[in-house]
Amino acid sequence: MSRRRVVALFRRVVSEIRRDRPSLALLFIAPIVITGLVTFILRESQVPQVTAVVVNLAGPRGQAVGDALGAALRTGGATVTDVADEGVARASIADTSASVGIVLRAGAATGSALDITVITNGLDPSGDAGQVSAVQRSVLAAVTSASGTAMPVIDHTTVYGTPTDDPVTTFAPAIVAFFAYFFVYILTGVSFLRERTGGTLERLMATPVTRGEVVLGYTLGFGLFATIQVAVLMLWALGSLHVGALGPLPAFSIGLGIAANGSPILAFVVVVLLAVGAVSLGIFLSTFARTELQIIQFIPIVLAPQFLLSGVLFPVSSLPSILRPLVAIMPLNYAVDGLRQVFIRGADLGVPALQLDLVVLGIVAAFFATIAAFTIRRDVV
Prior knowledge:
alpha/beta; Rossmann fold; single chain; 62% helix; two-stranded antiparallel sheet
């Protein structure tokens, strides 16, 4: 082994990285920004705002507990309203005028503790967990303040949800949306960069082909493979093929078998629109990159914040107020919400929330395709 050659290679690598400012930013600035953002979210996460509707089906005893529970919730900053029956409570939660419903029922045995059913929306499992925790703390405070009252039995149910105990089901929308977005962006960014560095794009721009036609053509081409990728991902996520025991191999299943209340085709449309947006984003950002490494360097800037702020890792309802306006401009947020509407709620095209998600995803795809057409000129000499 030649010490001289090793030192020469070492100096070459150091010199290249030192001149590559994006790489230096990735090494030193990006980790600080991302870890700082995560720490800020964890430290400044807001207590969930509870808007409760209470239904008393337990008579005078339930009224006493309900009054104490309402007082405890109001002490924590919640808004509490009494309603007549469980149907009204569920309707209030479905139209988001209330965040949680509390139904008080008499226990099965005479003189036993009350049964409390906590009802949440079900579309945001992480956010629902915060609502349930707030109610549980208030129930404990109410029982403590009312001497001689036994601890109620608390049950949690949701307005929307799939009939399964599989924990993956509630997180499936976020998982499917993020990984589709991530891998389509990588595919497009790297492939388009190769078109530029290989001289193909420069030769195209020397012909009568316009920048808009170039972007549209590449978007359709990459979009085809993105659509196939999404189809495979959806089949893997929603399908399940059982394979019997084969010799020494035990029986197993191929596919995640995630339950969905809504149409798989509608879920596919949501993810395809997200993927087309990722294609447009990849084309746009690749015009600013010179190497494949620089395509990767955009991930902490573009994809990591969306992962943190779009309800994939943290519930949007608990984000610090200063960060919430950013959620409205993140396409991944609309895809996650759209898939939750389809998977968990069973929404169709008549649901306004799903309509909004689809429209925004379409606008995002068109926006990045448009600005990509204007930035291509910078790559042609």
